[in-house]
Write a structure and sequence with these properties.
Largest sheet: 4 strands, antiparallel
Number of helices: 9
Order of helices and strands: EEEHHHHEEEHHEHEHH
Shape: globular
Number of domains: 1
Number of strands: 8
Oligomer: single chain
Region (Disordered): 239-258
Helix content: 40-55%
Distance between the termini: 44 Å
């Protein structure tokens, strides 16, 4: 499995390989939405699955441990993701002390979902196109609609959704437009945590735009990064007020603004 990932389907320059993704927490309170597993995910999944098979682990355990230890994992993704979640206090919205607990004692409160849960590549590189491109490719659209949009109907209608990257955010808007989600469930967007360089540092206000190298591509992304940061701060504040109001005896819960 490590040397030869299982090819699920191919459509011209696009290819999909299988990684375990089926484990689901239908009562999860936080849903983290990414675009598709990358190459590191594929390698980690193969290694973990092989190890668990050698120990004769049952299929359900293999699925669960892949979801917990591999999806949104890896030496760069998970630490960056935890840093960003903690910066905004996201874990506190679901009753946990910090983001690391989402993959530990609070794992059942988390559901990672990918628009394309099979590891999808374009010309051999991890797919990073926008939603328009995804919808224009029949193979990608079919998987997106069946496995991502289809999964949304199984989730708790009080779950909160957080996008990792602009494509994932567009997909959540698309789902809301179709009535699969309520706008109040959408917290906002963070940059893809796998990105190396200064993007995450800039998003977390650890470096200023003036401190970026003149050739740093993040300089061309500061507008949407700033907007995403501010909108997420506002959304977390709204949700915190909503939760505080709902917890008061005799206080009716109000819907979050769109």
């Amino acid at each position: 499995m490590i040397d030869k990932p299982v090819l699920v389907d191919r459509d011209g320059i696009y290819a999909m390989c299988y990684v375990p993704f089926e484990h689901s927490h239908e009562r999860a309170r936080l849903v983290l939405v990414s675009t598709t597993p990358g190459h590191i995910h594929v390698q980690l999944a193969a290694e973990l699955t092989e190890s668990l098979l050698q120990r004769h682990a049952p299929g359900r355990t293999i699925q669960r441990e892949n979801k917990r230890r591999v999806e949104l994992g890896g030496p760069l993704v998970r630490p960056n993701l935890i840093r960003m979640l903690d910066h905004f206090g996201i874990a506190q919205l679901v009753g946990l002390p910090g983001a690391a607990a989402l993959w530990d004692e609070g794992f059942e409160r988390l559901q990672p979902l990918a628009l394309l849960p099979y590891a999808t590549t374009r010309r051999g590189l991890a797919f990073d196109g926008d939603l328009k491109e995804l919808m224009a490719v029949p193979m990608l659209r079919r998987v997106f609609e069946n496995l991502f949009l289809g999964a949304l109907g199984q989730m708790d209608d009080q779950a909160l959704y957080l996008a990792l990257g602009r494509t994932a955010w567009s997909a959540l808007g698309h789902a809301a437009d179709r009535g699969l989600l309520q706008r109040r469930q959408l917290l906002g967007m963070m940059p893809v945590p796998a990105r190396a360089g200064s993007m995450v540092k800039y998003f977390l206000r650890e470096v200023s735009v003036d401190a970026l190298s003149p050739r740093d591509p993040v300089r061309h992304r500061t507008a949407w990064l700033d907007a995403a940061h501010d909108e997420l701060v506002a959304a977390v504040r709204r949700q915190s007020r909503h939760d505080a109001g709902a917890s008061q005896p005799g206080t009716a819960a109000t819907c979050l603004e769109a």
